[in-house]
Design goal:
The protein is of the alpha+beta class and 198 residues long. It has one domain: 3-Layer(aba) Sandwich (SMI1/KNR4-like), CATH 3.40.1580. It contains seven helices and seven strands, in the order αβααββαββββααα. Strands 1-2-3-4-5-6-7 form a seven-stranded antiparallel beta sheet. 38% of the residues are buried.
Length: 198
């Protein structure tokens, strides 16, 4: 992992520990990663993440959202119903084959996906989401995967000031407002698309 990715992942691991929320990151299995590289158009930085910190059991916890990162062993199968289909789950109409699902909302089921059609110079690409069953209207969640990890970390840090059991809409509003201030520093473009703040 490059320094920016390594620092971002370390910060995310640290906030899980500080909040006493179990999270299992492991070294990626080379055989699985080699097969994924052949099967999916994964960018270099995301592959480096899976190699150094495969999220075997990782789910964030904040008042408005829970994001479950998909482990490498499940990644190819998770594309079914999106870019790929089977007998039970047809491919999503209009889903681009370069959109790779890497996480889900554990509350709503919405996918978070890499838009590998828009690579950057660091071997990274934007992370998007789209509401399940509402047609395809992708929204930016992170200008790249590192920004996405930093936003998840900021949300987890902020959530430590809120009750895990609270379902108060006022708490959610206050949380989103405060998170917006943090995202403004991390990724102004993601703030502009308002996924995290509305």
């Amino acid at each position: 992992m490059d320094a920016d990715l390594s620092e971002s992942v370390s910060a995310l691991k640290r906030v899980f520990q500080e909040r006493f929320i179990p999270a299992n990151f492991v070294a990626g299995d080379p055989t699985i990663l080699e097969a994924l590289s052949s099967a999916l158009p994964l960018p270099d930085r995301y592959l480096a993440f899976l190699k150094g910190a495969d999220p075997v059991d990782v789910e964030t916890a904040t008042p408005p959202e829970r994001v479950r990162l998909i482990p490498a062993a499940e990644l190819e199968m998770e594309q079914i119903g999106y870019s790929r289909g089977d007998a039970q789950n047809p491919a999503t109409k209009g889903w681009h084959p370069g959109w790779i699902v890497i996480a889900h909302s554990a509350l709503l089921g919405d996918p978070y996906f890499l838009d590998t059609t828009r690579p950057d110079a660091e071997g990274d690409c934007p992370v998007m989401t789209a509401m399940s069953g509402a047609g395809l209207n992708p929204i930016l969640c992170g200008s790249n995967f590192v920004c996405f990890i930093k936003i998840l970390t900021a949300a987890m840090e902020l959530a430590s000031d809120f009750s895990d059991e609270s379902h108060d809409p006022d708490d959610e509003f206050i949380f989103r407002e405060a998170l917006g201030s943090r995202i403004k520093v991390i990724d102004h473009a993601a703030l502009r698309d308002k996924h995290w703040t509305t």
